[in-house]
Amino acid sequence: MAYDLGGPVRVAVIYYSATGTVYELAKAAAVAAEKAGAEVRLRKVREIAPDEVVAANRMWLEHVEATRHIGEATLEDLDWADALLMGAPTRYGAPAAQFKQFIDATGPLWGRGRLINKIASSFTSTATAHGGQESTILALNNTFYHWGAIIVPPGYADPVQFRNGNPYGTSHTSQNGEIPPGEVQLAAMEFQARRVVEVAQAFKRGRAG
């Protein structure tokens, strides 16, 4: 693939969120990546649920209205980025269908080798404490394997990880959207974003050298 060796690291934070939990994590990631020196695009994937289904859930409808200003993710955003932070809530232990549909549309880029060597990391949220956080992140990472991306997990590379407790990627238990991410979860997301930027910067320097 053609790799841009000049300028700052370019990070696309791409997410799906129904009631706003993953959105809060994505915002924290975008801010942290910018502070770390990256050029950042924050993008949501398109909502595909029927309008009547969204309207039947007050929190879902309010979130759709509140985030109309966020641009929708396109394949060009993936092509543009050096690094990807991708997040989705779980649905039965796997990424939400809205996010999966976006992933399934990346075949043209994948077929041209445009996703090889992207630095990639993932995050999630569930309604309950054991609702599929790790399995959702692992499912997201399965896509990265097929792309030939370079997966960068947060691991236990920062003290906050011993408080947040998920080396696979930042995760949060929202209790059906009632509990937003707290200080620890947001700090973990910020660390994960910084780590992604640092690894991407090192990779770009190595390629340029």
Automatic annotation (TrEMBL):
EC class (word): oxidoreductase
EC number(s) from the headed UniProt entry: 1.6.5.2
Gene Ontology cellular-component terms listed: membrane
Keywords: Oxidoreductase
Domain of life, source organism: Bacteria
GO molecular function annotation: FMN binding; NAD(P)H dehydrogenase (quinone) activity
SUPFAM superfamilies for this protein: Flavoproteins
Domain Flavodoxin-like: from-to ranges: 11-196
PROSITE patterns in the record: FLAVODOXIN_LIKE
Oxidoreductase keyword on record: yes
Family per record: Belongs to the WrbA family.
NCBIfam families registered for this protein in UniProt: flav_wrbA, PRK03767.1
This protein's name: NAD(P)H dehydrogenase (Quinone)
Originating species: Thermomonospora cellulosilytica
Highest classification ranks of the organism: Bacteria, Bacillati, Actinomycetota, Actinomycetes, Streptosporangiales
